[in-house]
Amino acid sequence: MKRGAPPVLRSNTGFIVAHASLLAGMVGLLFLQRYIWILQLAERGYGPYQSASYLAEASAVIVIIDLLVLRSVWHGSRWDKVASLAWAAIFFGVAVLILVLNNA
Questions:
Q1: Cα(35)–Cα(1) distance, integer angstroms
Q2: Full-model pTM
Q3: What are the CA-CA distances from residue 79 to residues 10, 20, 47, 70, 74 (Å)?
Q4: pLDDT tens digits for the chain (104 residues)?
Q5: Are residues 35 and 64 in contact, defined by beta-carbon separation less than 8 angstroms?
Q6: Residue 46, phi-psi category: left (phi > 0), alpha (psi -120 to 50), beta (remainder)
């Protein structure tokens, strides 16, 4: 019996790490923007109690969709795998854009 990860998992590890990194960065940037916004409200001394539950829900939906994308290209060609990174990169770019435009 062989030990270690199956060959399919080993060959896809880089793509899985890239997807996870981009999505983790996106979620982190969105929560950072929310934290900055709440700090600005607190400095002004007004504003209702704010929660970030909708950010958690939106992040969960994006991660679930990304898992479906990863599953669909799991046995695809290398080009399909690289193209699947566009999904995560677009959402990371949107999070960066939101952070930059809201704090400019």
A1: 51
A2: 0.71
A3: 17, 19, 48, 13, 12
A4: 456 556 655 667 788 888 889 889 988 998 888 888 877 777 777 665 656 667 778 888 888 888 888 887 777 787 887 888 888 888 899 889 888 888 86
A5: no
A6: beta
Classify residue 49 by its DSSP letter. -
Phi-psi bin for 47: left (phi > 0), alpha (psi -120 to 50), beta?
left
Measuring CA to CA, how many Å separate 94 from each of 22, 31, 42, 101? Answer: 11, 13, 26, 10
First to last CA, the chain: 58
Is the sign of the CA dihedral 77, 4, 21, 66 positive or negative? Answer: positive
The two structure tokens encoding residue 64: 């679930």
